[in-house]
Amino acid sequence: MDRILVCLKRAVDYNVRIRVKTDGSGVITDGVKMSVNPFDEIALEEALRIREKGETGEVVVVSIGTDACQQQLRVGLAMGADRAIHVRTDQALEPLDIARVLIRIAEAEKPGLIMLGKQAIDGDNNQTGQMLAALWERPQATFVSELTISGATATAVREVDAGLETIEFELPAVVTSDLRLNEPRYVKMPDIMKAKRKPLTTTELEELGITPQTRVTVLQTAAPPARQKGKMVADAAELVAELKRMDLA
Amino acid sequence: MGRILVIAEHDGSELNPSTARCLSCAGDFSGLDCDVVVLAKDGKRVCEQAATLHDVSTVIRIDHDANEHALAAVQAPQIAKLAEDYSHVLGPSTTFGKDLMPRVAALLGVAQVSDIMSVISPHSFQRPIFAGNAIVTVETRAQDMVVATVRTASYQATADGGKATIESRALDVELPTHTRYRGTSGSGDGGRPDLQSASIVISGGRGVGSEKNFALIYQLADRLGAAVGASRAAVDAGYIANDHQVGQTGKIISPDLYIAIGISGAIQHITGIKDAGTIVAINKDADAPIFEIADIGLVGDLFTIIPELEKLL
Ligand SMILES: Cc1cc2nc3c(=O)[nH]c(=O)nc-3n(C[C@H](O)[C@H](O)[C@H](O)COP(=O)(O)OP(=O)(O)OC[C@H]3O[C@@H](n4cnc5c(N)ncnc54)[C@H](O)[C@@H]3O)c2cc1C
Ligand SMILES: Nc1ncnc2c1ncn2[C@@H]1O[C@H](COP(=O)(O)O)[C@@H](O)[C@H]1O
Question: In chain A, how many domains are there?
Answer without folding.
Answer: 1
